[in-house]
Amino acid sequence: MTVLLTPQMPRTLPQRAGWALTEGWIVARRDLIHWVRNPTVVTYQLVWPIVMVLMFGFVFGSAMTVAGGGNYREFLMPGLFAQTMMFGIATTLLSVTTDASRGVTDRFRSMPMSSSGVVLGRSIADMANSCGELAILAACGLAVGWRWHEGPGGALAAAGLLLLLRFALIWIGIWLGLMITPEAAAAAWAPLFPLTMVANTFVSPSQMPGWLAPLAEWNPLSATVAAIRDLFGNPGMPGDSWASEHAVLLAVLWPLALIAVFLPLSVRRYRRLAR
């Protein structure tokens, strides 16, 4: 006679935290293996940053000027770094909705697994992917003349702000992905492009119409871009608004606020699926 043993559920807070971390890593490892074994997705994610650098750096960059006569490609690269982090929302959305449509999410929910561990695993996998994308984008930037001038400390701080932004955006992607279909997730690029364009990604807000400039200056993406330009020592065109003068502070506060809102919403949404 075969006896099936059900694992004992953890009761104390340290046990629950360890449980969530262990299962989060298992889910993350599964997502990373799936990513590696899907050559189409891997190729697209690796080629896209290269295309963006070449297109904006050489095609559009030839017509752009930077205040003080700076190199436009050095002005551009921080914007492309942050834009890549923003576009990661679409990757998260597609992964979450695909798992839900194929029954993978329901299978996880039917097992004695930590609900926070499942969404944590998704975030770990996406952060690993984002680190790879940043490395490739940085290599492309170095190849076309971009440099950082404030030493390794400034470069690491800038990378930390970029990954903090990506971590915050992951939770927005998970929350939305648990509510929409794969078809809707595939169209996520449409609203993301305006969000990255109405910012200081490619031009200074001071060059935009008067009614549009405040929106660009207070865009969370603008805070990260302005902050990492400063940390990299790259040329920029700062404005005289409070948001422009406190970009580093906002580059920390915006992601923390998004995490505080959407992380618990994502866990709650996962727990309430199909109720």
From TrEMBL:
<dbReference type="GO" id="GO:0046677">
    <property type="term" value="P:response to antibiotic"/>
</dbReference>
<keyword id="KW-1003">Cell membrane</keyword>
<keyword id="KW-1133">Transmembrane helix</keyword>
<protein>
    <recommendedName>
        <fullName>Transport permease protein</fullName>
    </recommendedName>
</protein>
<dbReference type="InterPro" id="IPR013525">
    <property type="entry name" value="ABC2_TM"/>
</dbReference>
<dbReference type="InterPro" id="IPR047817">
    <property type="entry name" value="ABC2_TM_bact-type"/>
</dbReference>
<keyword id="KW-0046">Antibiotic resistance</keyword>
<dbReference type="InterPro" id="IPR000412">
    <property type="entry name" value="ABC_2_transport"/>
</dbReference>
<dbReference type="Pfam" id="PF01061">
    <property type="entry name" value="ABC2_membrane"/>
</dbReference>
<feature type="domain" description="ABC transmembrane type-2">
    <location>
        <begin position="40"/>
        <end position="273"/>
    </location>
</feature>
<feature type="transmembrane region" description="Helical">
    <location>
        <begin position="247"/>
        <end position="267"/>
    </location>
</feature>
<feature type="transmembrane region" description="Helical">
    <location>
        <begin position="155"/>
        <end position="178"/>
    </location>
</feature>
<keyword id="KW-0472">Membrane</keyword>
<keyword id="KW-0813">Transport</keyword>
<dbReference type="InterPro" id="IPR051784">
    <property type="entry name" value="Nod_factor_ABC_transporter"/>
</dbReference>
<comment type="similarity">
    <text>Belongs to the ABC-2 integral membrane protein family.</text>
</comment>
<keyword id="KW-0812">Transmembrane</keyword>
<dbReference type="GO" id="GO:0043190">
    <property type="term" value="C:ATP-binding cassette (ABC) transporter complex"/>
</dbReference>
<feature type="transmembrane region" description="Helical">
    <location>
        <begin position="46"/>
        <end position="68"/>
    </location>
</feature>
<dbReference type="GO" id="GO:0140359">
    <property type="term" value="F:ABC-type transporter activity"/>
</dbReference>
<feature type="transmembrane region" description="Helical">
    <location>
        <begin position="75"/>
        <end position="96"/>
    </location>
</feature>
<feature type="transmembrane region" description="Helical">
    <location>
        <begin position="185"/>
        <end position="203"/>
    </location>
</feature>
